[in-house]
From TrEMBL:
Protein name according to UniProt: Nitroreductase
Record domain Nitroreductase: where: 40-207
CDD domains associated with the record: iodotyrosine_dehalogenase (cd02144)
Cited InterPro entries: Nitroreductase (IPR029479), Nitroreductase-like (IPR000415), Nitroreductase/BluB (IPR050627)
Keywords, alphabetical: Flavoprotein, FMN, Oxidoreductase
Length: 229
């Protein structure tokens, strides 16, 4: 297996790419199944403590790692947190920030937007779900000798990777939540991440609890989000 290294200054080296073209009928059938499966995806905040095969999570991270990125910099780091003590520290710090946020820091407009979701400062999912994945964005590249190089379109790149991660987890029968406590600086400190990384999202992963509930929400229809030109 080849090890990735930064490509700055390397010449363009094209290689053939000829994936098999899926027959139209087969493609339409697969597309319809995927659309139906993904329409079932919901953000879950109530997790069972049942164990989850680690390979399912590793495979989903591997899928996320195939995401396109600006200048192929792949500016992401996935930190899989299983240690109960570390997770307890993350929950304690996150809930401390959330108490301030829900206590007024967010402002009434933001709190009003959150109200239909039923969220509050309590974050049991951070310790209940069998896996906790913290996604970090590398703001710039950091070489072993301490020198740096620029990354491009970092927010967009990591956002796409997280979207692919959530898709892969759902298709594997798992539930997930994108939790973004604000501010998130404490995550880099608790997990001892290097100076070029900033937390992007905290993602509990597992199976929904037997008594799990979700908000009664409706997604926009295709007509509401699609513009034909």
């Amino acid at each position: 297996m080849m090890t990735w290294t930064p490509l700055h200054g390397h010449p363009y080296e094209p290689i053939p790419y000829h994936p098999n073209r899926i027959p139209v009928e087969q493609a339409l059938a697969a597309s319809a199944v995927l659309r139906a499966r993904m329409d079932e995806r919901r953000t879950v905040r109530m997790f069972a403590t049942d164990p989850v095969p680690e390979q399912l999570v590793l495979d989903a991270i591997a899928v996320a790692n195939t995401a396109p990125s600006g200048a192929h910099q792949q500016p992401w780091t996935f930190v899989l947190v299983e240690d109960p003590e570390v997770r307890a520290r993350i929950r304690e710090a996150a809930e401390a920030e959330e108490r301030i946020s829900y206590g007024g820091r967010l402002g009434e407009e933001w709190l009003s937007a959150l109200r239909p979701l039923g969220t509050d400062e309590h974050k049991p999912h951070l310790t209940d779900a069998p896996y906790l994945l913290v996604v970090f964005q590398q703001r710039y590249g950091l070489r072993a000798d301490g020198t740096t190089y620029k990354h491009y379109y970092g927010d967009e790149s990591v956002g796409i990777a997280v979207g692919m991660l959530l898709t892969a987890l759902h298709l594997a029968g798992l539930a997930a939540l994108t939790h973004t406590p604000s501010p998130m600086k404490f995550l880099g400190e608790v997990l001892a991440r290097p100076r070029n990384e900033k937390a992007f999202a905290v993602i509990p992963i597992g199976y929904p609890a037997d008594d799990s509930v979700v908000p009664n929400l409706t997604r926009k229809s295709l007509d509401q989000v699609l513009v034909r030109v």
